[in-house]
């Protein structure tokens, strides 16, 4: 457990092939643990530096059940909705819509490619916030997608595991020019 709270000292993003991305992360027991609170702060600043819209602790080699959803428009996701970063500890999906939608996803741990991935359109989630408050929330659309992507990381899955066809993988560059409509500078 204490090991699980200690990220890679350089806070590098674990890349596909690193076995930590395939482990089931440990539940967090001590919300007030200084190392947990420091890890949360590190992940928040990493997200704002990396143009990510979400991150899970295993991506920095801390195998504990912590994720952050932080949708905002940026260079990697120009059409993302704006929200304040939400820290979720020991998150669970407690309800889901029957509607599943496919859309493009990428991952800081799988650089350079995007995949067309099916996710529930709406979910209801429960988690502890960083002060230990139990919170229940409805998420929909892109924000629900981010949650499901990050939640998979806590269970040793990456988005590639959910591809329906290998033909639904494209490069970042093709994604930006064909799907988003941004021409390379
Ligand atoms: Zn990811």
Automatic annotation (TrEMBL):
CDD domains, A to Z: Pep_deformylase
Enzyme category, top tier: hydrolase
Cofactor, how bound (note): Binds 1 Fe(2+) ion.
One of the GO BP terms on file: translation
Annotated InterPro entries: Peptide_deformylase (IPR023635), Peptide_deformylase_sf (IPR036821)
Alphabetic keyword roster: Hydrolase, Iron, Metal-binding, Protein biosynthesis
HAMAP family reported for this sequence: Pep_deformylase
Protein name, UniProt field: Peptide deformylase
Species, as recorded: Pegethrix bostrychoides GSE-TBD4-15B
UniProt gene name: def
């Amino acid at each position: 457990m204490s090991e699980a709270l200690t990220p890679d000292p350089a806070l590098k993003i674990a890349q596909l092939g690193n076995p930590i991305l395939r482990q089931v992360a440990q539940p967090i027991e001590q919300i007030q643990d200084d190392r947990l609170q420091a890890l949360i702060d590190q992940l928040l600043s990493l997200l704002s530096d990396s143009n990510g819209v979400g991150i899970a602790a295993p991506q920095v080699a801390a195998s504990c059940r912590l994720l952050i959803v932080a949708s905002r428009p940026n260079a990697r996701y120009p059409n993302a909705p704006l929200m304040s970063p939400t820290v979720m500890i020991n998150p669970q999906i407690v309800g889901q819509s029957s509607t599943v939608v496919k859309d493009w996803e990428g991952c800081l741990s799988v650089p350079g490619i995007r995949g067309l991935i099916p996710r529930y359109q709406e979910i209801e989630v429960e988690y502890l916030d960083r002060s230990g408050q139990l919170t229940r929330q409805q998420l929909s659309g892109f924000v629900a997608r981010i949650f499901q992507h990050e939640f998979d990381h806590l269970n040793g899955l990456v988005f590639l595991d959910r591809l329906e066809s290998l033909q639904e993988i494209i490069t970042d560059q093709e994604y930006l020019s064909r799907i988003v409509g941004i021409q390379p500078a």
